[in-house]
Amino acid sequence: MAAKAFLGIGEGNAAETEYQQLTEGLIKDILNVSQLSRDAPDRENVLKEIKDRSTAWVAKYRRQGSVQGRPSFANTYSAVNAIAGHINSFGFSTPVPKKRLDRIVKDLTDAERQLQRGR
């Protein structure tokens, strides 16, 4: 058991637990924000918070080899990148087009499913 803990394999792996929790939280929050109407109060501040959290998530996990090859990482990263690109190009007040939003939601639901499988 000590060898598994040393190698970061199995239960008790704090980094794995942290990845799971941060990614699940980010996914749930982005999915909730995607349902906000254009005239929702405090929409801009909520979107800024999501963008900041997304940037921090990417900075934390982008170079970690232990998560780079995971489907949950790839799908979450793709969705986060699409949201950030939209915000950078069009600002916080312009809603995400339906086709792009549908793709983001699909990526996030796929990532959520993969996280539940430990992938």
From TrEMBL:
<dbReference type="GO" id="GO:0009523">
    <property type="term" value="C:photosystem II"/>
</dbReference>
<protein>
    <submittedName>
        <fullName>Photosystem II repair protein PSB27-H1, chloroplastic</fullName>
    </submittedName>
</protein>
<dbReference type="GO" id="GO:0010207">
    <property type="term" value="P:photosystem II assembly"/>
</dbReference>
<dbReference type="Pfam" id="PF13326">
    <property type="entry name" value="PSII_Pbs27"/>
</dbReference>
<dbReference type="InterPro" id="IPR038450">
    <property type="entry name" value="PSII_Psb27_sf"/>
</dbReference>
<dbReference type="GO" id="GO:0010206">
    <property type="term" value="P:photosystem II repair"/>
</dbReference>
<dbReference type="GO" id="GO:0009543">
    <property type="term" value="C:chloroplast thylakoid lumen"/>
</dbReference>
<dbReference type="InterPro" id="IPR025585">
    <property type="entry name" value="PSII_Psb27"/>
</dbReference>
